[in-house]
């Protein structure tokens, strides 16, 4: 996030892949090095569009409380631009963006709080919140829109990633998993 002209880290991000990701990614990516994966946008595209479940945890480390609505607005601002640029923004995506923003309206994100996203292979983005390190029992919104579901994860690990460290972590870990070193 930019603050007073400087880039500041406001969150730690973890991306987790379902076991089915191993079989889905192995055919094309097994035998590649971490550097090869990190440099290949097609690899990350295969992750965020893959037919397996993904889970993303965004934990806030910024020392001030952030309005969740502000966070959602920043996320959706870039995602709407991305979807429009790829020709994937329709009335359905506009409705999904409204639903996404509505899910964040009554929340604040204090240091240590997390936003949790489950990205289903069917294109359902489930949104949940945790005020601490616990896992909530259920999501507060399930947004049925494949383009938006993929676009949220694309913002984290895509070509214009908001978290190069998360991308590098995935690129480093996946070769170990694909060769059975997990």
UniProtKB/TrEMBL annotation:
InterPro entries: CFI, Chalcone_isomerase, Chalcone_isomerase_3-sand, Chalcone_isomerase_bundle_sf, Chalcone_isomerase_sf. Pfam families: Chalcone. It catalyses: a chalcone = a flavanone. Residues 2-176 form the Chalcone isomerase domain. Pathway: Secondary metabolite biosynthesis; flavonoid biosynthesis. One of its GO terms (biological process) is flavonoid biosynthetic process. Belongs to the chalcone isomerase family. PANTHER family: CHALCONE--FLAVANONE ISOMERASE 1-RELATED, CHALCONE--FLAVONONE ISOMERASE 1-RELATED. Catalyzes the intramolecular cyclization of bicyclic chalcones into tricyclic (S)-flavanones. Responsible for the isomerization of 4,2',4',6'-tetrahydroxychalcone (also termed chalcone) into naringenin. This is Chalcone-flavonone isomerase family protein. It comes from Panicum hallii var. hallii.
């Amino acid at each position: 996030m930019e603050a007073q002209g400087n880039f500041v880290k406001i969150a730690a991000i973890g991306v987790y892949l379902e076991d089915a990701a191993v079989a889905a990614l192995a055919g094309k990516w097994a035998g590649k090095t971490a550097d090869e994966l990190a440099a290949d946008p097609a690899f990350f595209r295969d992750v965020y569009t893959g037919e397996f479940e993904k889970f993303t945890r965004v934990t806030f480390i910024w020392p001030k409380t952030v309005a969740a609505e502000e966070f959602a607005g920043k996320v959706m601002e870039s995602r709407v631009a991305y979807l429009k640029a790829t020709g994937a923004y329709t009335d359905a995506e506009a409705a999904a963006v409204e639903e996404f923003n509505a899910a964040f309206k009554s929340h604040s994100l204090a240091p240590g709080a997390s936003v949790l996203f489950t990205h289903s292979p069917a294109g359902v983005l489930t949104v949940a919140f945790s005020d601490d390190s616990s896992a909530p029992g259920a999501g507060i919104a399930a947004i049925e829109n494949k383009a938006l579901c993929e676009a949220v994860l694309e913002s984290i690990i895509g070509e214009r990633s908001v978290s190069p460290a998360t991308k590098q972590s995935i690129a480093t870990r996946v070769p170990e998993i694909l060769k059975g070193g997990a």
